[in-house]
Every structure is written in structure tokens, then in C-alpha cells.
Amino acid sequence: MRRHLISIVFITLSIFTHPGIANTKIAEGEVLVRFSGEYNLAQAQKKMSSRNYRIKEVINATMNLYLVEIDGSVGQAIKNLKSTEDVLYAQPNHYVQLRYSAPSESFSVQDLFRGLPNDPQMNQMWDLVEGVGGISATQVWNTSVGGKDRGNNDIVVAVIDGGIDVNHPDLNQNAWINTNETPSNGLDDDNNGFVDDIYGWNAFANNGKISADSHATHVAGTIGAVGNNGVGVSGVNWNVKIMSIMGASGTTATVAKAYGYVIEQKKLWYSSQGKRGANIVATNSSFGVDSADCTSGDYPVWNDLYENMGKLGILSAAATANNDVNVDVAGDVPTGCSSEYLVTVTNTQKDDTKFSRAGYGVKNVDLGAPGTKVFSTLPSSTYGALTGTSMSTPHVAGAIALLHSLAPMEFYNDYMAQPATAALALKTSLLKGVDPLSSLRGITVTGGRLNVSKSAGLLMNYKSSH
Ligand SMILES: [Ca+2]
Ligand SMILES: [Ca+2]
Ligand SMILES: [Ca+2]
Predict the structure, then answer these.
(1) How many CA atoms lie within 13 A of 307 on its CB side?
(2) How far is the CA of 399 from the centre of ligand 1 (A)?
(3) N or C: where does the chain have the smaller number of CB atoms within 10 Å of the terminal CB?
(4) Residue 183 Cα, ligand 2 centroid: separation in angstroms?
(5) Is 13 helix (H, G, I), strand (E, B) or coil?
(6) Thinking of the domain 2-96, which architecture would CATH place it in?
């Protein structure tokens, strides 16, 4: 795994120095196939052997999505599969890059906190305050600091990334734990289809072992480092449950397995009336395929995943490219995908300008959020500042969770009855609440930067349409 991650970082850094180069490499000898209707493993195997192909792996059971081993060219196999009965679609298994970020110095905004909360390094958290390019989370904390929805359910955010340091003193209490699973006994105790999944899932290794890395740990801290515990910093939420899913690079198959875990856990949460699974309301992603056209027909799995999660009431916050590129023109996966359940994010600075190396697009990039010199948690009980769209996106994922904690009862009831519709209403509050910025006008959908306080005000006036 370590060698794997190092090579990913190497690849991404070399892309970082040559912006705009398309990287749409595909894995040879395999394709992703979704069958229409219910299609179990045996049926899929039979269907594929009729074409002399073999099922390599079940990617997601709910979606009937499989990785299929083929001989010969990927293009020819896709052509064959598209004309095969019961195949909804087939696509290449593209390589995916983590949207890496560079270390940087942090700012100090000591005077803006007035002693609330008590975390000693809050003076670094310009990104959460009002008036210096931050998202005004501090204004919301008078009303809610996150944690539970109106039904007293834990609010869960799934971080698809590397692994989170769940033992970090500022994260441990907010790490999601599968209480229905017994660790390390080799059994799927809660019968959710995943053996020994305690803190989430490792889609690289197909097991429950989460190994800490800097990127994921930093992202998690922005969403929900424990607030007011006298230690370090606070995230957008003082309280929230953060699920760690490893699967932010490698290939599309890995990413699909990672999101597949989210789908299975939320489905199970509904079907068990909250006794099993997890009440995931948002996912956070900072990976993708640069300069790839999501709507070309070459990437159907991506949009399909966001749609399937969206139907379960899950919004997906996604980082756009770490290049000064118009993704409407150049293309981007996933931020150029058409699903309404995506919330796509670019990187703003303390002076509310867009960071130079950050993607934009009046059609495809929804809003900005602080992503330059953002201070947060790092492995081994440490802290530091990082820069990238990767750092912007968790502000949005965190905001979605915080909004769920303060939405009125009427919203909660609608969310339980019609999760997809309610999730889109929450997204509307999120986007309508932005602070308009001249730097983002005409180059993003909203023309503004996240202001969770204004979004909270809008959502608190939510009226059911039923
Ligand atoms: Ca399990
Ligand atoms: Ca177990
Ligand atoms: Ca803290």
C-alpha cells in the first residue's frame, strides 16, 4: 500500500507541474459493466462467459456493477458488451488521481475568535470565521455545533480519500464506528456484506484496515475536528461522525467500490430503521480524472454513482481540478458530471480571490470555499496547513452535515419521506447562501464562496411543499 501511495503522489506531482495535460489512461484487460435489473454473480458470470469474458470482481451489488476481465482491446470489448442483452452500459476502467495539495504556512486570526471555543489553535482558523474569506461557521455555532439531526440520528459524512488517523486526539471522538461489527474476527458480524468494517472500508485492499495518511486526516479535521475539547482546533462541526473510506486513487473500479460502501450502508440504515448501516448525508472527494469529458459516454459509472447516492439523500462534495483550467471546456471527472447531487468546489484564499491553480466553470463548478493555507489535523497528533481544492471541499461536506443538524422538523420529515428531493432543497440553501465574489462571478455557477451561516438562515425557513 505504501509503495502504491508514493507512486500516486509522484504521478500527481508531475501533473501538477504540467497543468492541462489530459490523463485518461485506462487499465488494459478489463472493463466495468452494469447490468440492467437484478443480476446476481452467477447470472453475470454466465452472461459474460457467453462472450468469453470473466467476472473479476463484484464492484457494487445494488447497482449490479462488475469488473469484467477481457481479452483483446478494451474498445472492442465495450462495443461487444454494448450490444449484449441486459448490459446497461460498459466503460473503460480509467486511472484516477488524488487531487494532491502542497504544504504551506498558516495565517493567524487571533482577534476574531473572542475565546470561543476553547481549542488552543483556533487562532489559525481563518477559514471558519466571518470577514476574512471564511465560511462564518462561528456564527452558526450559537445555534448548532452539529452531531444529530431532528430525529436524534447521528449525522455521518463519508470521506473517500486515503485513510483517516482515527486515533488523532482531535478526531477520535468523531470517528464513525460500526458498533454492530466485531473487529478482526474475520466475520461479517452485521451482515452488511463487508468483513470487519469498523471505521469504514478500504476499497484498495477489500478489507476494513484503515491506515492513516496526511491528506485524509487533514480533510477529516476540516469537516469535524472535535470542537471545544481544549485540544488543537475545531472543524466546521464540533460533533459529527466521520466515516473513513480508502479509495481515492488507483482506478475507477476502486472509486466505485468506495462509493458502493456508502450506498450499501445508507440503504441498510433505511431498511433497518437506523439500527444498522449509517446515516450518511454527504460524501467528500478530492480525486478525479483531469481533462476527461464525463458526458462523453466513456464515464457512465461516475454519474451513476452520484445519482444512486443522491436517491438515498446523499450529496457529494467534489473538488475540481488543481489547475487554472475552465473545466466546462477542458472537461473534468467528476466535477463535469451532470448529476444534480454533486456539489463542485473550487479554491479561494483569505482575500476572497481564487487560488491561481484551481479549476472553474460557470456551468460545472458550483462555488468556492477556503482552500489556501488551511490549518487542520495531521497524523500522529500533529497539525498543519495545506493548500488545494482538496482543502476547500471538506468545508462544503462539513456544511451539509451542519445544516442537517439545524434544519427544522419539517425538513427532517421530508428527508425521511423523500430523501432525494429534500437533499436537493438543502443544496439550494447551500448555493443560495454564498457570499458573492467578484473573483468568482461569471466563472462559477453561484459566483460566490460558501457562507454556512447564510445557508443556515435559508434552511431554517424551509417550508414543505407537501
Ligand atoms: Ca460488516
Ligand atoms: Ca467482524
Ligand atoms: Ca479540538
Answers:
(1) 10
(2) 29
(3) C
(4) 5
(5) helix
(6) 2-Layer Sandwich (3.30)
